[in-house]
Amino acid sequence: MRFVHTCLRVRDPEASERFYRALGFERRGRLNFDTAYNLYLGLPGDGDTLELTVNHGRKEPYDLGEGYNHMALVVEDLDGLLATLGRDGIEPEKPPYSPGGREEVGRICFVRDPDGYRIELIDRDFPTPQDPERTSA
C-alpha cells in the first residue's frame, strides 16, 4: 500500500496552480469530465500527489468544514519561500516558529492557498516532535 494523492476543490485554477508552483509543484496532467476537470501536480522526483478539482461554473467558496486542518511540505529555504510568496500577497498566519518552543526541531509556519486550504511549511526536514506517553488523562 502507498499514499497516492490529496484532492482539493479549487475555484480559480490559475491562481491555485501559481500558488502550488511557488511551493515547487509541477503540473503533470489534466483529466476532463462533463462537469469538472482535474489538474495533477507533483513535486520533482515524486508522483502526482496533488489533484486540483475544478467544477465548471463554481463561483461560491467551498466550505472547508471542521475536519480538514492542513497538509505539510518540507521546504529547503523557508525564509526564501516566504519572500517569494509575499510578492504574490501570500503571508504566513504568524511568523515561523519552533513547534512546542523546541528550537532543536527546526521551524514551521502556515500559509493558505487561494481557496483557504492551510499548508504547513517545514524548514528543512526534521523528525516529528514527540512527547512521552501520558499515563493519566
Description:
The chain has 137 residues and is an alpha/beta fold. It is 15% helix and 29% strand. It has a four-stranded mixed beta sheet, covered by helices on one side. Strands 5-7-6 form a three-stranded mixed beta sheet. A hairpin with a 3-residue loop joins strand 2 (26-32) and strand 3. The model has no long low-confidence stretch (mean pLDDT 90).
Task: State the shape.
Answer: globular
Largest sheet: 4 strands, mixed
In the CATH hierarchy, what is the superfamily of the largest domain?
A: 2,3-Dihydroxybiphenyl 1,2-Dioxygenase, domain 1
Number of domains: 2
Instruction: Tally the beta strands.
Output: 7
Radius of gyration: 17 Å
Q: Structural class of the secondary elements?
A: alpha/beta
Number of helices: 2
Low-confidence regions: none
The level of helicity is 10-25%
CATH topology of the largest domain: 2,3-Dihydroxybiphenyl 1,2-Dioxygenase, domain 1
Whole-number average pLDDT? 90
Distance between the termini: 34 Å
Write the layout of secondary structure elements.
Blueprint: E1 6-9, H1 13-22, E2 26-32, E3 36-42, E4 50-55, E5 71-75, H2 78-87, E6 108-112, E7 118-123
Task: List the defining traits of the structure above.
137 residues; alpha/beta; 2,3-Dihydroxybiphenyl 1,2-Dioxygenase, domain 1; 2 domains; 3-stranded mixed β-sheet; 15% helix; 29% strand; globular
